[in-house]
Design a protein that fits this description.
By secondary structure, the chain is α+β, with helices and mostly antiparallel strands. Among the domains are: 149 residues, 3-Layer(aba) Sandwich (Rossmann fold); 106 residues, Double Stranded RNA Binding Domain (2-Layer Sandwich), CATH 3.30.160. It has 9 helices and 18 strands. Helix 5 links the parallel strand 5 and strand 6. The longest helix is centred in the last third of the chain and has 14 residues. The protein starts with 5 loop residues before the first helix and ends in an 8-residue tail after the last strand. The mean pLDDT is 96. It binds S-adenosylmethionine (SAM).
Length: 389
Protein backbone atom coordinates (compact mmCIF):
# COMPACT_ATOMS: atom_id res chain seq x y z
CA UNK A 1 0.00 0.00 0.00
CA UNK A 2 1.30 3.49 -0.86
CA UNK A 3 2.14 5.64 2.17
CA UNK A 4 -0.31 8.57 2.66
CA UNK A 5 2.42 11.18 2.23
CA UNK A 6 4.45 9.36 -0.44
CA UNK A 7 4.02 11.95 -3.21
CA UNK A 8 4.98 14.90 -1.00
CA UNK A 9 7.91 12.93 0.47
CA UNK A 10 9.14 12.10 -3.03
CA UNK A 11 8.97 15.78 -4.03
CA UNK A 12 11.16 16.62 -1.03
CA UNK A 13 13.67 13.77 -1.26
CA UNK A 14 14.13 14.59 -4.97
CA UNK A 15 15.27 18.08 -3.90
CA UNK A 16 17.47 16.79 -1.08
CA UNK A 17 15.15 18.60 1.33
CA UNK A 18 14.41 15.64 3.61
CA UNK A 19 17.65 14.15 4.88
CA UNK A 20 16.64 13.02 8.37
CA UNK A 21 15.04 9.54 8.15
CA UNK A 22 12.88 10.16 11.23
CA UNK A 23 11.27 13.22 9.60
CA UNK A 24 11.11 11.34 6.29
CA UNK A 25 9.02 8.65 8.01
CA UNK A 26 6.77 11.36 9.48
CA UNK A 27 6.19 13.00 6.07
CA UNK A 28 5.42 9.59 4.56
CA UNK A 29 2.81 8.92 7.25
CA UNK A 30 0.76 12.14 6.98
CA UNK A 31 -1.71 12.81 4.10
CA UNK A 32 -1.16 16.50 3.33
CA UNK A 33 -4.36 16.71 1.26
CA UNK A 34 -6.44 16.05 4.40
CA UNK A 35 -5.38 19.49 5.68
CA UNK A 36 -6.48 21.45 2.62
CA UNK A 37 -9.79 23.25 3.38
CA UNK A 38 -12.73 23.60 0.97
CA UNK A 39 -11.36 26.94 -0.31
CA UNK A 40 -7.81 28.08 -0.91
CA UNK A 41 -6.77 31.59 -1.93
CA UNK A 42 -4.59 32.15 -4.98
CA UNK A 43 -2.59 35.32 -5.67
CA UNK A 44 -3.85 37.19 -8.72
CA UNK A 45 -4.38 40.76 -10.05
CA UNK A 46 -7.78 42.49 -9.93
CA UNK A 47 -8.54 46.13 -10.63
CA UNK A 48 -4.82 46.90 -10.77
CA UNK A 49 -3.93 45.43 -7.38
CA UNK A 50 -2.67 42.13 -6.00
CA UNK A 51 -5.41 40.14 -4.30
CA UNK A 52 -6.14 36.51 -3.38
CA UNK A 53 -9.00 34.84 -5.25
CA UNK A 54 -10.97 31.90 -3.85
CA UNK A 55 -10.44 28.52 -5.55
CA UNK A 56 -12.36 25.39 -4.51
CA UNK A 57 -10.20 22.48 -3.38
CA UNK A 58 -11.74 20.48 -6.25
CA UNK A 59 -10.08 22.78 -8.81
CA UNK A 60 -7.65 20.65 -10.87
CA UNK A 61 -4.76 23.06 -10.18
CA UNK A 62 -5.40 22.97 -6.43
CA UNK A 63 -5.61 19.17 -6.57
CA UNK A 64 -2.15 19.11 -8.15
CA UNK A 65 -0.59 21.80 -5.92
CA UNK A 66 -1.59 20.06 -2.69
CA UNK A 67 0.83 17.21 -3.48
CA UNK A 68 3.63 19.48 -4.65
CA UNK A 69 6.16 21.67 -2.90
CA UNK A 70 3.90 24.72 -2.68
CA UNK A 71 2.42 26.72 0.16
CA UNK A 72 -1.34 27.27 -0.17
CA UNK A 73 -3.17 30.17 1.45
CA UNK A 74 -6.04 28.85 3.54
CA UNK A 75 -7.43 32.05 5.09
CA UNK A 76 -7.42 35.73 4.13
CA UNK A 77 -8.13 38.89 6.14
CA UNK A 78 -8.65 36.91 9.37
CA UNK A 79 -11.59 35.09 7.77
CA UNK A 80 -13.43 38.12 6.36
CA UNK A 81 -12.27 38.66 2.77
CA UNK A 82 -11.94 42.41 2.28
CA UNK A 83 -10.94 42.69 -1.39
CA UNK A 84 -13.06 43.47 -4.45
CA UNK A 85 -15.51 40.79 -5.59
CA UNK A 86 -14.99 38.41 -2.69
CA UNK A 87 -11.20 38.36 -2.93
CA UNK A 88 -8.82 38.71 0.00
CA UNK A 89 -6.09 41.27 0.59
CA UNK A 90 -3.83 39.77 3.26
CA UNK A 91 -3.20 36.03 3.63
CA UNK A 92 -3.65 35.24 7.32
CA UNK A 93 -3.28 31.45 7.46
CA UNK A 94 -1.72 28.87 5.18
CA UNK A 95 -0.37 25.38 4.83
CA UNK A 96 3.34 26.05 4.51
CA UNK A 97 5.63 24.95 1.69
CA UNK A 98 6.64 21.33 2.50
CA UNK A 99 10.37 21.89 1.88
CA UNK A 100 10.32 24.82 4.31
CA UNK A 101 8.36 22.75 6.84
CA UNK A 102 11.00 20.02 6.49
CA UNK A 103 13.86 22.52 6.86
CA UNK A 104 12.32 23.94 10.03
CA UNK A 105 11.69 20.53 11.59
CA UNK A 106 15.20 19.39 10.75
CA UNK A 107 16.62 22.65 12.19
CA UNK A 108 14.63 22.00 15.36
CA UNK A 109 16.29 18.56 15.53
CA UNK A 110 14.01 17.28 18.30
CA UNK A 111 14.93 13.87 19.70
CA UNK A 112 12.75 11.02 20.95
CA UNK A 113 11.01 11.87 24.20
CA UNK A 114 11.37 15.64 23.84
CA UNK A 115 8.50 18.09 24.27
CA UNK A 116 7.83 20.78 21.66
CA UNK A 117 5.68 23.92 21.61
CA UNK A 118 4.46 24.95 18.17
CA UNK A 119 3.26 28.51 17.59
CA UNK A 120 0.73 28.93 14.75
CA UNK A 121 -1.26 25.71 14.34
CA UNK A 122 -2.74 26.78 11.00
CA UNK A 123 -4.15 23.75 9.21
CA UNK A 124 -2.42 21.35 11.64
CA UNK A 125 -0.22 19.66 8.99
CA UNK A 126 3.06 20.51 10.72
CA UNK A 127 1.51 19.50 14.04
CA UNK A 128 0.60 16.10 12.59
CA UNK A 129 4.25 15.65 11.59
CA UNK A 130 5.32 16.54 15.15
CA UNK A 131 2.78 14.03 16.52
CA UNK A 132 4.15 11.31 14.23
CA UNK A 133 7.72 12.05 15.28
CA UNK A 134 7.34 12.71 19.02
CA UNK A 135 3.88 11.43 20.03
CA UNK A 136 0.64 13.33 20.67
CA UNK A 137 1.42 13.85 24.35
CA UNK A 138 4.67 15.65 23.62
CA UNK A 139 3.41 18.47 21.43
CA UNK A 140 1.39 21.56 22.29
CA UNK A 141 0.30 24.08 19.67
CA UNK A 142 -1.17 27.58 19.95
CA UNK A 143 -3.34 29.23 17.30
CA UNK A 144 -4.69 32.77 17.62
CA UNK A 145 -7.66 32.33 15.27
CA UNK A 146 -10.49 30.31 16.86
CA UNK A 147 -11.97 29.15 13.52
CA UNK A 148 -8.58 27.99 12.24
CA UNK A 149 -7.84 26.25 15.56
CA UNK A 150 -11.17 24.42 15.54
CA UNK A 151 -10.72 23.24 11.95
CA UNK A 152 -7.23 21.93 12.81
CA UNK A 153 -8.59 20.08 15.85
CA UNK A 154 -11.24 18.42 13.66
CA UNK A 155 -8.83 17.42 10.90
CA UNK A 156 -6.27 16.03 13.33
CA UNK A 157 -8.93 14.10 15.28
CA UNK A 158 -10.27 12.55 12.04
CA UNK A 159 -6.75 11.28 11.35
CA UNK A 160 -6.40 9.97 14.91
CA UNK A 161 -4.04 12.65 16.32
CA UNK A 162 -4.84 14.21 19.71
CA UNK A 163 -2.26 16.91 20.49
CA UNK A 164 -3.10 19.81 22.79
CA UNK A 165 -4.21 22.82 20.73
CA UNK A 166 -4.71 26.05 22.62
CA UNK A 167 -6.62 28.98 21.15
CA UNK A 168 -4.83 32.18 22.09
CA UNK A 169 -1.95 34.55 21.46
CA UNK A 170 1.12 32.40 20.97
CA UNK A 171 3.39 35.35 21.83
CA UNK A 172 2.73 34.49 25.48
CA UNK A 173 3.71 30.85 24.94
CA UNK A 174 1.85 28.44 27.23
CA UNK A 175 3.09 29.17 30.74
CA UNK A 176 1.25 26.26 32.36
CA UNK A 177 2.52 23.56 30.00
CA UNK A 178 6.28 24.22 29.96
CA UNK A 179 9.12 23.98 30.16
CA UNK A 180 9.57 22.72 26.62
CA UNK A 181 12.66 21.19 25.09
CA UNK A 182 12.15 23.32 21.98
CA UNK A 183 9.82 25.92 20.46
CA UNK A 184 8.96 25.98 16.76
CA UNK A 185 7.18 29.04 15.40
CA UNK A 186 5.44 28.52 12.06
CA UNK A 187 4.64 32.22 11.94
CA UNK A 188 7.13 35.06 11.52
CA UNK A 189 8.37 37.34 14.31
CA UNK A 190 10.03 40.74 14.09
CA UNK A 191 10.49 40.68 17.86
CA UNK A 192 11.07 37.21 19.30
CA UNK A 193 8.66 37.01 22.27
CA UNK A 194 10.73 36.54 25.46
CA UNK A 195 8.15 33.98 26.70
CA UNK A 196 9.35 31.47 24.08
CA UNK A 197 12.86 31.59 25.48
CA UNK A 198 11.71 31.62 29.10
CA UNK A 199 9.61 28.49 28.50
CA UNK A 200 12.45 26.55 26.79
CA UNK A 201 14.98 24.47 28.74
CA UNK A 202 18.59 25.71 28.64
CA UNK A 203 20.24 24.09 25.61
CA UNK A 204 16.89 23.89 23.82
CA UNK A 205 16.22 25.49 20.46
CA UNK A 206 13.78 28.17 19.37
CA UNK A 207 13.31 27.99 15.59
CA UNK A 208 11.47 30.94 14.11
CA UNK A 209 11.14 32.82 10.81
CA UNK A 210 12.61 36.13 11.92
CA UNK A 211 13.36 39.47 10.35
CA UNK A 212 13.14 43.11 11.25
CA UNK A 213 10.47 43.50 8.57
CA UNK A 214 12.24 45.52 5.88
CA UNK A 215 12.63 42.29 3.89
CA UNK A 216 10.89 38.95 4.30
CA UNK A 217 11.89 36.65 7.16
CA UNK A 218 14.87 34.30 7.41
CA UNK A 219 14.96 31.12 9.44
CA UNK A 220 16.57 31.79 12.83
CA UNK A 221 17.71 28.97 15.10
CA UNK A 222 18.33 30.19 18.64
CA UNK A 223 19.87 28.10 21.40
CA UNK A 224 18.75 29.00 24.91
CA UNK A 225 21.49 29.87 27.37
CA UNK A 226 21.62 29.15 31.12
CA UNK A 227 21.30 32.91 31.78
CA UNK A 228 17.93 33.11 30.00
CA UNK A 229 19.18 34.75 26.81
CA UNK A 230 19.36 32.95 23.45
CA UNK A 231 21.76 33.18 20.51
CA UNK A 232 21.71 31.82 16.98
CA UNK A 233 22.30 32.17 13.27
CA UNK A 234 20.13 32.93 10.28
CA UNK A 235 19.93 29.79 8.18
CA UNK A 236 17.94 30.42 4.99
CA UNK A 237 14.94 32.20 3.46
CA UNK A 238 11.73 31.59 5.36
CA UNK A 239 9.07 33.95 4.01
CA UNK A 240 6.15 33.71 6.43
CA UNK A 241 3.15 35.71 7.53
CA UNK A 242 3.90 37.67 10.72
CA UNK A 243 2.47 37.19 14.20
CA UNK A 244 -0.93 38.86 14.18
CA UNK A 245 0.06 41.84 16.31
CA UNK A 246 3.39 42.33 14.48
CA UNK A 247 1.78 42.77 11.06
CA UNK A 248 1.98 46.06 9.20
CA UNK A 249 -1.02 47.56 7.44
CA UNK A 250 -1.25 47.18 3.67
CA UNK A 251 -0.71 50.77 2.62
CA UNK A 252 1.04 53.06 0.20
CA UNK A 253 3.82 55.63 0.55
CA UNK A 254 1.24 58.33 -0.23
CA UNK A 255 -0.46 57.51 3.09
CA UNK A 256 2.70 58.61 4.91
CA UNK A 257 4.45 61.20 2.76
CA UNK A 258 3.05 64.61 1.95
CA UNK A 259 5.55 66.24 -0.34
CA UNK A 260 3.59 69.48 -0.26
CA UNK A 261 3.93 69.80 3.53
CA UNK A 262 5.71 72.95 4.77
CA UNK A 263 8.94 73.02 6.75
CA UNK A 264 10.83 70.38 4.83
CA UNK A 265 14.51 70.25 5.59
CA UNK A 266 16.15 70.22 2.17
CA UNK A 267 19.80 69.37 1.53
CA UNK A 268 22.06 66.76 0.06
CA UNK A 269 23.14 63.25 0.95
CA UNK A 270 26.22 61.38 -0.17
CA UNK A 271 24.75 57.92 0.30
CA UNK A 272 23.33 56.60 -2.97
CA UNK A 273 19.56 56.65 -2.39
CA UNK A 274 19.27 53.41 -4.37
CA UNK A 275 21.13 51.45 -1.64
CA UNK A 276 17.77 50.76 -0.01
CA UNK A 277 17.06 48.39 -2.92
CA UNK A 278 20.41 46.54 -2.71
CA UNK A 279 19.16 42.93 -2.86
CA UNK A 280 21.95 41.47 -0.70
CA UNK A 281 20.01 39.55 2.00
CA UNK A 282 22.62 40.41 4.64
CA UNK A 283 22.17 44.11 3.89
CA UNK A 284 18.38 43.78 4.00
CA UNK A 285 18.54 42.32 7.51
CA UNK A 286 21.13 44.87 8.68
CA UNK A 287 19.20 47.83 7.25
CA UNK A 288 15.89 46.70 8.76
CA UNK A 289 17.51 46.11 12.15
CA UNK A 290 19.50 49.34 12.26
CA UNK A 291 16.70 51.55 10.89
CA UNK A 292 13.61 50.19 12.67
CA UNK A 293 10.23 50.47 10.95
CA UNK A 294 11.85 51.62 7.70
CA UNK A 295 9.81 51.35 4.52
CA UNK A 296 11.02 52.48 1.08
CA UNK A 297 9.63 53.10 -2.38
CA UNK A 298 11.66 53.74 -5.54
CA UNK A 299 10.06 55.44 -8.56
CA UNK A 300 12.11 55.28 -11.75
CA UNK A 301 12.02 58.33 -14.00
CA UNK A 302 9.85 57.89 -17.06
CA UNK A 303 11.67 56.41 -20.05
CA UNK A 304 10.02 59.11 -22.17
CA UNK A 305 11.93 61.81 -20.31
CA UNK A 306 15.29 61.84 -22.09
CA UNK A 307 16.77 64.38 -19.65
CA UNK A 308 16.06 62.20 -16.62
CA UNK A 309 17.20 58.88 -18.00
CA UNK A 310 18.40 56.56 -15.21
CA UNK A 311 17.18 58.88 -12.48
CA UNK A 312 14.94 57.76 -9.65
CA UNK A 313 13.09 59.23 -6.70
CA UNK A 314 13.59 57.18 -3.55
CA UNK A 315 11.14 57.68 -0.70
CA UNK A 316 11.71 56.50 2.87
CA UNK A 317 9.13 56.55 5.67
CA UNK A 318 8.50 55.04 9.09
CA UNK A 319 4.68 55.26 9.29
CA UNK A 320 5.08 57.45 12.38
CA UNK A 321 5.53 60.86 10.77
CA UNK A 322 9.15 60.75 9.60
CA UNK A 323 10.01 60.54 5.95
CA UNK A 324 12.65 61.45 3.41
CA UNK A 325 12.91 61.81 -0.35
CA UNK A 326 16.20 61.39 -2.23
CA UNK A 327 16.83 62.09 -5.92
CA UNK A 328 19.20 59.58 -7.50
CA UNK A 329 21.05 60.62 -10.67
CA UNK A 330 23.70 58.64 -12.56
CA UNK A 331 25.91 61.76 -12.23
CA UNK A 332 26.61 60.47 -8.71
CA UNK A 333 26.93 62.11 -5.29
CA UNK A 334 25.87 64.43 -3.82
CA UNK A 335 22.17 63.71 -4.21
CA UNK A 336 19.37 66.16 -3.47
CA UNK A 337 17.33 65.10 -0.49
CA UNK A 338 14.52 66.30 1.76
CA UNK A 339 13.30 65.13 5.10
CA UNK A 340 10.42 65.67 7.46
CA UNK A 341 9.55 64.52 10.98
CA UNK A 342 11.53 63.74 14.12
CA UNK A 343 13.80 61.07 12.56
CA UNK A 344 16.45 61.78 9.93
CA UNK A 345 15.97 58.59 7.95
CA UNK A 346 18.69 59.47 5.41
CA UNK A 347 21.20 59.86 8.25
CA UNK A 348 20.07 56.53 9.71
CA UNK A 349 20.38 54.76 6.33
CA UNK A 350 23.82 56.31 5.83
CA UNK A 351 24.98 55.13 9.26
CA UNK A 352 23.58 51.64 8.63
CA UNK A 353 25.38 51.41 5.28
CA UNK A 354 28.64 52.53 6.87
CA UNK A 355 28.31 49.99 9.70
CA UNK A 356 27.54 47.17 7.25
CA UNK A 357 30.43 48.11 4.94
CA UNK A 358 32.88 48.46 7.83
CA UNK A 359 31.85 44.99 9.01
CA UNK A 360 32.95 43.65 5.61
CA UNK A 361 29.52 43.63 3.93
CA UNK A 362 28.48 40.43 5.74
CA UNK A 363 26.05 38.16 3.90
CA UNK A 364 23.10 36.76 5.80
CA UNK A 365 25.01 33.55 6.53
CA UNK A 366 27.41 35.56 8.71
CA UNK A 367 24.64 37.20 10.73
CA UNK A 368 23.19 36.03 14.00
CA UNK A 369 20.91 37.33 16.72
CA UNK A 370 21.01 37.44 20.49
CA UNK A 371 17.71 37.83 22.29
CA UNK A 372 18.28 39.07 25.83
CA UNK A 373 16.05 38.01 28.74
CA UNK A 374 14.11 41.26 28.43
CA UNK A 375 13.52 40.72 24.70
CA UNK A 376 16.17 43.19 23.47
CA UNK A 377 17.57 41.99 20.14
CA UNK A 378 21.24 42.35 19.19
CA UNK A 379 22.31 41.56 15.63
CA UNK A 380 25.89 40.33 15.31
CA UNK A 381 28.42 39.33 12.68
CA UNK A 382 30.12 35.92 13.00
CA UNK A 383 29.76 35.64 16.78
CA UNK A 384 27.76 37.24 19.59
CA UNK A 385 30.71 39.35 20.75
CA UNK A 386 30.65 41.35 17.49
CA UNK A 387 27.42 43.37 17.41
CA UNK A 388 26.51 45.25 14.26
CA UNK A 389 25.60 48.71 15.44
C1 LIG B 1 1.75 29.89 8.18
S1 LIG B 1 0.41 29.52 9.20
C2 LIG B 1 0.95 28.08 10.04
C3 LIG B 1 1.09 26.86 9.19
C4 LIG B 1 0.79 25.61 9.94
N1 LIG B 1 1.78 25.30 10.95
C5 LIG B 1 0.53 24.43 9.06
O1 LIG B 1 1.22 23.41 9.14
O2 LIG B 1 -0.45 24.49 8.31
C6 LIG B 1 0.56 30.73 10.48
C7 LIG B 1 -0.51 30.64 11.52
O3 LIG B 1 -0.11 31.43 12.63
C8 LIG B 1 -1.28 31.97 13.21
N2 LIG B 1 -0.92 33.09 14.08
C9 LIG B 1 -0.68 34.39 13.74
N3 LIG B 1 -0.40 35.11 14.85
C10 LIG B 1 -0.46 34.26 15.90
C11 LIG B 1 -0.30 34.42 17.28
N4 LIG B 1 -0.01 35.60 17.82
N5 LIG B 1 -0.43 33.32 18.07
C12 LIG B 1 -0.73 32.11 17.54
N6 LIG B 1 -0.92 31.91 16.21
C13 LIG B 1 -0.77 32.96 15.42
C14 LIG B 1 -2.12 32.35 12.02
O4 LIG B 1 -3.47 32.50 12.39
C15 LIG B 1 -1.85 31.17 11.09
O5 LIG B 1 -2.83 30.18 11.24
Amino acid sequence: MTAPGAVVARALTAKGALLDPAWHRAVLAVPREAFIPETVWVRTRREGRTVFAPYPRTDPDVQAWMHQDYALMTQVDDGEPAGPGGTGIVPTSSISQPSLVAAMLQALDAADGEKVLEIGTGTGYNLALLCERLGDGRVVSVEVDPVVAEQARRTLAELGYKPTIITGDGAAGVPGCGPFDHVLATVGAKQVPPAWIAQTQPGGRVVVPWGPGFTSAALLRLVVDEDGSAHGRLLRDAAFMWLRDQRRPVDDWRDHIDETAPALAAGEVTVNPRVVSDPDPGWGVALGHLVPELAAHTAEASEDNAEAVGEATVRLYDRAGSWGVGEYTPAGAPYEAQRCGPRDLWAEVTAARTAWEEAGRPGRDRLGLTVERDGRQVLWVDDPTKPLD
